[in-house]
Amino acid sequence: MRTKSYVTQAKIRKLKFYYTGKACKYGHRAQRYTVDKHCVVCKKIKIESI
What we know:
single chain; mainly alpha; 2 helices
C-alpha cells in the first residue's frame, strides 16, 4: 500500500524516480522509475545485455 503513495507522490511532483527502501525481486535496493516501477539497476543490466 505504501508503494502506491510513493509512486503517486513522484507523479504529482513529476519526478523520474522514486525510492521505497525495499529490494526488488532480484535484491537490488535502488531507485525505481516512476513511469513503469522497474528497478533502475535491473533496467540497466537488461540494457547492457542487449
